[in-house]
């Protein structure tokens, strides 16, 4: 009897790549050394807004080791080079040129104004101090409402406004629902709130880095990027380099979280410098440069109105956003809030919906995609307003959610925002989460603490969420005016000895693709897991791809791998049938073996590989190769969901918040590797909780970033976080053959509102209905004390835990 091979998909495999990654025995951009390598350092403006009256580089050119010093006049004399923005969300969107170096004006503190090339990194850095820039300070505009106020200073005078674009979705006009103004006017209950999404800084492990070698037949760029294929195309278009003469390599990349999705001025600069000097150059930023000049995330004001019947049935939702773009537009920055537009309705059956987003320029670091990209902001808004509605109605917040959510028998379900959710079971995930959490027991304890006026109050926070993953069907992206598609490419190469090389366009930066793709292919072809090698991150070996972001790697890239493997099997079937003198229709394929149906006559796929290589006995007209490639363009997004529950203890005397218990039950469809899923969930939870409690980028009144180091920008350690209780339900996606959904951003999306809801729930009886993030002890304490004096609570109109917004948009 032939032994059954245990399936790889679903197995908790430790990651193949970890042996080299966690020991540092790998290749990352900054450890590359090439013959004659020169080092690049960038001089950055200390001012958020200023004219440049002159730049004197003469002394810097005399410093030891300095090879050259350049300004914008040297690298881009006609001012024609600008960083790309791939998402013009409206026809009239204003898109000012973002230069590689500022020429006559700087628009945010940290913008590059000059560059030094030297024989060592230290010499390049030292020479920056010898560059003399004559700045003339200009008025600075900070804060979204300040920027839109009449007479506000303009970031870009030539535009005549700080308004970048207005994007609107209305369910009445779209035909997907009713008129929201009518729903609000006729409602029995209306709740309005303003929520603030503070600005965050992607704190990836590896700073951004770039090496360019111009000395071969091709220009080769190594970059710590999430998007080598997009970078190659955009760099070629920006600089006019023939695309076939440019090769981009993303070696092992130490994290990204969206923070490495951009096409950088520094990458463009390095290409120009390498060509100009005829030698390889390297730029690696410091951690302070990362925090100052790499793009930031979030930064929105959300004005939300929800209407309902007295029994809790939601009748309408109106969302008005202000989104801070910073001083320039990022690669996809304008579209980030638009992704959220489709998720404010979340898991709920909302009959009328209106969304309007105004994107705004300010004199700050630009914003762009950050883990979740629009969906965390939307989930926070809807889950917070659902809690506020429950409080207004005197209902248990879970009861309110259950009354309004889509039931499992109603899938597929087309939402008021026009998306069709293919599958889900919110009831099952919630029931399991409530059992693990002891929801009713903790509610009893909460009541008891309130009755005895315990100084440490208990709050329970809920987040029942869904998200749109697998970015994205190309036709949908086209309808939203995005510049590119959402397909992904893969190829499967069969070697003569039966070993397998998988080439994927989804370029990993820590997610575990090499392991997961090996598991998928092992099952598809019936070969050992150890016999599969995964190749990625090099546009020469992986010539097609749309890269990694938006929880798309598995749901799009992984399915391309499946499709390529299916083509390999189809070719092998034809050759196997020829070898065994039977019809291909008579062959069964399982566990790597072709068997003539009803007989014991068989051959392995490895035998077919070698026979194909030898090519001695192939069907007429058959090429001697099993290699195959495929491009997968999803027909729909995937929609993972889950229920996250948080118990928070709030010391009413000090404002200290302690997370006592955190339970999440996620449904990410079929699971390829439970260990990878668990790791993604844990990492996502840490980032989402960090937004709720710790992280905030703050600028002072002059536009200087005051949180430019980890001494000021607080990242949590394991000691600052609770132990997580995690579990899963499984509702397979119906739109891909593996039934998988995304997982990379789920924890971040769901956890922030769960934590803030828990904190507000703990002190709501003290007159508090909002606390601005991050919910620091100071903010919590002040909210409690203000709440005791103000029966209206906090946040209804002013939007902040402390009630006022300073120039940077943060709480005072």
TrEMBL record:
Annotated segments matching region Disordered: 792-812
Source organism, top-level taxon: Bacteria
PANTHER family the UniProt entry points to: ALDEHYDE OXIDASE 1-RELATED (PTHR11908:SF132), XANTHINE DEHYDROGENASE (PTHR11908)
Organism the protein comes from: Amycolatopsis dongchuanensis
Keywords from the named record: Molybdenum, Oxidoreductase
Domain Aldehyde oxidase/xanthine dehydrogenase a/b hammerhead as annotated: residue spans: 23-139
Keyword Oxidoreductase attached: yes
Signal peptide annotation: none
SMART domains: Ald_Xan_dh_C
Keyword Transmembrane carried by entry: no
Name of this protein: Molybdopterin-dependent oxidoreductase
Pfam family, one: MoCoBD_2
Gly residues bias spans: 792-803
